[in-house]
Known about the structure:
The protein is an alpha+beta fold. It has a seven-stranded mixed β-sheet with strand order 3-5-1-12-9-10-11. Strands 7-15-14-13-8 form a five-stranded mixed β-sheet. Strands 18-26-27-28 form a four-stranded mixed β-sheet, with helices on both faces.
Amino acid sequence: MTPTTAAITPSKLMGAEVKRKEDPRLITGSSTYVTDIVLPGMLHLAFVRSPHAHATFTKIDARAALKTPGVKQVVTGEDIRRLAKAVPPASGSAEGGATTSAPGRTHWALSTGVVRCVGEAVAAVIADSDYTAHDGAEAVQVDWQPLPAVTDIFKAMAPGAPQLFADAPKNIEHETPIKVGDPDAVFAKAKRVVKQRMVSQRLSGISLETRACVAAPEGISGGIVVYATHQAPHMLRADLANVLGMDANLIHVINPDMGGGFGVKFGCYPEDVVLAALARKLRTPLKWVETRVEHLLATTHGRDQVTDMEAAVEDDGTVSALRMHVHANVGAYPVFTFIPDLTLFMGVGVYKFTNVDLKSTCVMTNTTSVAAYRGAGRPEAAYYLERMMDIIAAELEMKPEEVRRKNFIPPSAFPYATPTGQNYDTGEYDKALTEALKQANVDKLRAEQRARLERKDPKQLGVGIACYVEMCGFGPYESAVVRVDSSGTVTVYTGTSAHGQGHETTFAQIVADQLGVDFDRVQVKHGDTASIPMGNGTGGSRSLAVGGTAILNAALKVQEKARRIAASMLEASFDDVVLQDGKYQVKGTPAKALGLAEIAATAYGETLKPELEHGLEATDFFRPPALVYPFGAHVAVVEVDRETGGVRVVDYVSVDDCGVRITPNLVRGQVHGGLAQGIAQALWEHVVYAEDGQLLTGSLMDYAIPRAEDLPSFRDSATVTPTPRNPLGAKGIGEAATIGSTPAIVNAVVDALKVRHLDMPLRPNTSPAR
């Protein structure tokens, strides 16, 4: 807890526009990524992966591979089973959910006897170079016996479908129901029921940097050091300790600079286990770098839900009851299988629905496992709800904003307990929508739209609205250490782990303000389990709300220590010493003031009074009392060529409320990146499997991602509704724009074409859905 005697110093840097501390090393190429790690005697790995979606195998013939010059060894699943236990499901703590225990659904790091998706690894080749390792992997011969495969959710549940695991009848991994109020009675009496099936298609993470891992023996401890592209290094350490049967303190995980994560770099992947186990056994450094094809094939995917929605609707647009049944494809192995449950948790969005019947059915298929991807369950919920609002508006011939306003949770209702178990902190949903409509000048756009319709212009204009709320700031805690050295420079250690967000900048702003130290004299360290206290990493927009609060609390503890030392140096009462304008001074007497460097020198010197504690550092573990709930409203403007089916995004306005903003330019960057990803789902991206389980989008020639010319200059704005759940008043922004943008774009295209519904991605050949 924050000491009662310390107080948040009036901010000069918190909320200011500053240059990112990370950028000099990133833009000059002097940063270090896992790929840059080179260790003496290091060997390289490549994996032999299944070409079949479902098959058994009885023999792996490595003779030809071992004849390849430079190949040292070929390792099979039987070898790894002697070194490591099965790969664990990803921890539920990162996104606030829980996993189920299903011992019959075992996933070994290198599979033995059976594979359940294309790309599943069955052997590893160790060689003296990356190229040689891949040549050796191509030479390995496997005796495959193909089995029937299933990739479609509904076919997987049908009688006679191929079964992935004996203990999962109908291939159902788990089901979750949420039923509150009396929705059945409301639907039975409803004059109007609006129904629609919607698809949130499968996506790939496509982080700029693919996954990579270097594992090496650590001589002094007898343990191992693992360099990994991972969003939560302490979680990876814990998983590896469990799998390898080692004490956690014998495993040193380092996540250096990382080029994006988006959720797909959570969890313990089979490749991590193989490298760690073999480095430990062989006492040799080993390196593996994922190819882009492997990333599309074997790194977890996102979304992949088919959802049936029903709304009981009054004549004035009031939704009196809601049904939602989410059928989610979770892939071949249980990883983050609670993601669809998060969709249910946010299943009422910004609306005051009280009669709800929500259900998720998670189904296993012969496809790559589905796990966290930017937003993780919340974008899906917002998409279904915001499409339903527009469908209702069209049926009632009302404006889309009128239906939303009729159903908004009012500001006076907060804190608001939803029927899905969430406890919203603060929200002013109509305020954000009104601002977005004003900035987009929607009335003028609709007049232009009518004019184009009247003159039968081949390029029709569409305006799409979306409102959203999301859950973030997940616990159970986050850690921080703030350490002032004897020269007055400050080092901050944080349990969150950056992969492009700019943590070093934001956290330095907080500490500089609270300690009276120059921004450039604050260094932020992260991603190294040997130097950083236990942390839960970065995901679910938690870094500022949880990690930043831990840093603030630790800084305030240090500030209190500094004030006590300053009081002794100034021969003043502790209560009379304040931090003002970067100096520790006696109230009302600016001439009697000390800088942090002067105080630090005394804190570590011989003249410190005996009753005071040497040193100037503090640790804090902040445990959030509850989640926080950012919200916003987006307006998309598109032009659709009715002759070609081409869609052009003409304008985009986003009004996002993430509470108090510490670094506005970083918030803007998060919004712009999130908009690009959300718009890309609406218009282009789609992981596609053939019926036999072959991946049809296995390269960036086949999987479409946006280019700069495909997107307009975004217009981002804000409302600011602080949360009372942390002293910063901050919520989260990392996923917000992705959540709001996908439904806004789809609503705009549907509006332009005047059809009922279209399933994503909205490519020229997309047909209207029923």
